[in-house]
Amino acid sequence: MKTTPLHPDFGVEVHGLDLKSVTAEDGYPELRRLFDRHSLLLFRDQPLNDAEHLRLGNLFGPIENRTENPGDRLSAVSNKAAEGGVTAADDLHTLNLIANQLWHTDSTFLPVPALANLLQARVVSSTGGETEFVSTRAGFKRLPRETQERLRRTSFHHDYKTSRGDIAEELTTLDIIQKWPEQHWRALWPNPETGEEALYIASHVYAVEGMDRAEARAWVKDLIAAMTPPEAIYTHAWRPGDMIIWDERATLHRGRPWPYKEERTLASICVTARDVDGLQAVRV
Ligand SMILES: [Fe+2]
Residue 219 burial by CB count (10 A; 0-12/13-18/19+): exposed, middle or buried? Predict the structure, then answer.
């Protein structure tokens, strides 16, 4: 297994590993060490079917279900319409995908948040549709010392309706958005293996404990801006068969626009965080 860096802050491309052959004893321990250290792992030209994708996800932990269908653990991040063709640019389904273009961490609005996302490109658009990532571990280190101290005492309230309402009020009425009650997490998620702190923040944050609501949203906006200056971003232009596994505890990401008349389909699996991933440290 060889690695090449993707960005000075974080991320590596992993070569010489067949994802289909990884098992809990063989391959996974090394993969997990790379994941804890680099926060983002890229694998090229490794198309996996649904079963292989789920099997790989399961090595990291229990697979999350955040879709409408309880049996459906692999979610298609796609504008493909059930009746054929693609969903219209102003369709609520498309708008929900567009809400992913706000900087976020996946699943902070769930009762148990995610450790990782394993995202694979299936169908890509002719242009656009990149995913951008930043390290909130590196971003945290760059903050002034007094802000770091303050964040060690801070907790955020997350609600899925926040990010969706920022794109279109109507999105907040959808069952898949409505169904999650708000969650409350500490602002930092230290990695239990390395001890490094990372800012745990998302477009879903609507309040800061003990702070005026408007002031809180302005501070959250400033913090996300401090994490995401252009030089901190790794931009991934997808090719079919690309797989990226990222650490939700130590990154922020966002999708980029693409021509909505074209299909773009990524297959996503989120893995639920457990105590071994430092879950207790983020609980309030
Ligand atoms: Fe996401």
Answer: middle
How many angstroms is it from 160 CA to the middle of ligand 1? 12
The total domain count for the chain is: 1
Token pair, residue 159, equals 């609600």
40 or 82, which is more confident? 40
What's the domain range around 142?
2-282
> How far, in Å, is the centroid of ligand 1 from the Cα of 143?
24
How far apart CA 183 and CA 112 sit, in angstroms, is: 9
Token representation of residue 265: 């389909």
- C-alpha 107 – ligand 1 centre gap (Å): 8
For the stretch 1-29, pLDDT in tens is 899 999 999 999 999 999 999 999 999 99
CATH number at residue 126: 3.60.130.10
